[in-house]
Description:
By secondary structure, the protein is α/β, with parallel strands linked by helices. It is 27% helix and 15% strand.
Amino acid sequence: MEIPSRGNRPNILWICTDSQRWDTLGCYGNPLVRTPNIDRLARQGTLFENAFSQSPLCMPSRGSFLTGRYPCTTRLRQNGQVVPADLKPITRTLANHDYLCGLSGKLHLSACDQRLSFGPQWWKAPDKYWLLPFEQRINDGYTVFHWCHSPGQHSPACGYSQWLHSKGARVGDETEPSPHSKHLLRPRPDELHLTTYCVERAIEFIELHHETQAWYPWLFSVNIFDPHPGYRPLEEYLRPYLDRLDEIPLPSWGEEELDGKPAYQKESYEAAKTRSTRGMTARDLRLIKAAYWAMCDHIDTKVGLLLEALHRTGQSDNTLVVFGSDHGELLGDHGKIIKGPYLYEGAIHVPLILAWPGHIQANQRARGLVELTDLAPTLLQAAGLEPDPAMQGRSLWSLLTGQAPLDHFRDDVYGEYHNADCDHPAQWLTMLRTERHKLVAVHGTREGELYDLQADPGENRNLWADPGCRDLKIELLQRLSARMAYTADPLPLRIGVF
């Protein structure tokens, strides 16, 4: 298999969910979920067993994988920042090379609310002024833009709001509690669901290119909000889990685990505002996981519709399909329900599947470590374009095409959290994860985390202070220091010797 020529550039259907862990799919070994369409996509292409986000939060992660650069390099280190004007997503590069790029759903490269601009007592301002009516855009390359940040959006700039209005439905947030649990919300019906809106807009785009596909290639980003909290599962997807709730595994941890963790984690657990599992029953925890899985199953149904649209319009063979997520979610692991200043597996280990018939090897499972920074350079190479010198990720193309071994790609992966979420105490964390070990440095303290992932895959026993791990910790800290140095911006390029 060869790198496609400029005349053989694929369409790219990029399906990105929000906050979806790797272990939510049948093809990743979950026996309880129902994800036949994504499982079939995995058999048609390459599944990455060990793909990792570079941040456990939306904006830093999305800015990173859309550019192939690390969050500290893109300067999108935190949720709620204003997008740098010179950020260069891969969609802009592709648009400059005759790709027509479209989007439905989230983008989240810039702040979508403005509450902190009201000052230290921002919560005293009416919450109707918190959300911005639109997301600030730069030259992002998207010509077709069916944007909606979240299910509760109420704005004439929001495509989902327009769609609901055209159907005579009420626009705005739906916060009615679920009859099953105070921790769940009742969703809109499927025909009015945000996921349905995103997928319908994508199918419309695919169908409109049935006659014109020979003229130019396209990229479409289907950026689905689910399974992001708050958890709004459709009843028809939740019901099967309610019938077997006791089979859903509970988080394998106890409060005593916190005694060996950095101090901020115990403080965060004890603070109600950070949404810890404190006070939750086993049934609460199982219901949250059931709701989360139900939302993933709903997504799978919609992925099936997207793949069917490609087949129906004769575009399956010339479309590269990407399925993945921006980061994960904790779901009760380590006493936390949602993401935050944590670099545990549940927060950063994500699904990643790429398929393109005749070009990407089918039914292939790659075990080597990969980063989401590797996606952008991979898509450039698949499109026959030169590498972007600004990118810091590594193209996966040789692995996808069977020219590189599946069991090793990177020696380690790097992650960071730089005071990224104002809902949590300020923390600066960096992470190095190898195939066997993970080290997290808590900067500004003498604390950190060290895990043997082979002996302790749940990351329950922190070895940071273990005297027997002294040499290992020194080695990993040195490697982490090197990775931090390598995040230095490659630009501007050197043009002379002095």
